[in-house]
Design brief:
Length: 219
């Protein structure tokens, strides 16, 4: 997993949750911005896709190498302003938009209505739970605003995460929240693996939640 930090182009604006196209070696791919609008840089978290054309090459970048960032951020996976409860489900680097949204909301005193965030994050191992330590610390600092629940799929990978990660599928871990939360006050989001998104979509749509998602690829 790669946390890729680039200088923020002058005048570049975005809303937490949005994505931008990175252009490298003649290839363009969208990546969600994991930093917040108050950061002086843009950060992305990138998974190395086996046999992928562009992502493995991003891992070879050295400090100072040029990387083109498309001028405009896009995407509608942004915070629902009317919900008081936000349930977010991420697989691996699908954490990026939610890290931006949660950090921005918790940092910004104008967020006002004190919404509560529950963020479930799944990966195959500790390394895939990128930002787990930071998010665990944030949840401990503001327990009334933010709950962070990491999940690793296979057993026996807990100690490296720096937090208590139980085992099991993240979409399954979301079910008790989907049962308990009030659909009239809650926005549900999912990002990352398309199969995980479909599982969450089926569960939330049955109960009438408003749902937003972004799949990183098509099955
Ligand atoms: C809206 C959007 C936002 C995205 N945000 C991020 C992000 O924040 N971080 C990130 O790492 N990636 C993100 N992606 C995926 C990213 O754009 C690239 O598709 C990915 O890095 C693979 O590019 P590649 O050139 O290496 O592989 P390619 O040569 O383009 O593709 C190889 C194959 O792998 C599939 N694939 C793409 N991503 C994955 C994956 N993660 N796991 C398994 N198979 C995959 C592709 O569909 C294709 O079939 C996002 C994609 C979309 C559509």
């Amino acid at each position: 997993m790669l946390a890729l930090r680039v200088s923020r182009p002058e005048g570049f604006e975005f809303s937490p949750g949005q994505r931008v196209k990175l252009n490298f070696g003649g290839l363009k791919r969208p990546y969600n911005i994991s930093s917040t609008p108050s950061d002086a840089f843009l950060e992305f978290c990138v998974e190395r896709v086996k046999d992928g054309s562009m992502s493995p090459r991003l891992f070879e970048l050295k400090t100072g190498d040029p990387l083109l960032v498309k001028a405009r951020a896009k995407g509608k996976l942004t915070l629902c302003p009317t919900a008081t409860e936000h349930l977010m489900v991420a697989s691996v680097t699908g954490i990026a938009p939610f890290r931006s949204m949660v950090r921005h909301a918790l940092e910004d005193p104008r967020a006002g209505a004190t919404p509560h965030f529950t963020l479930l994050h799944g990966g195959a191992n500790a390394e895939e739970l990128v930002y787990a330590e930071e998010l665990t610390a944030l949840a401990r600092a503001q327990p009334d605003r933010f709950t962070y629940i990491p999940r690793v799929s296979p057993p026996g990978e807990l100690s490296e995460v720096g937090c208590e990660a139980a085992t099991g599928r993240v979409s399954t871990a979301a079910l008790p929240f989907i049962e308990r939360l009030d659909p009239t006050k809650t926005q549900v989001y999912a990002c990352g693996h398309p199969a995980m998104i479909d599982e969450v979509r089926v569960a939330v749509c049955r109960r009438g939640f408003s749902f937003a998602s972004e799949a990183f690829w098509k099955l």
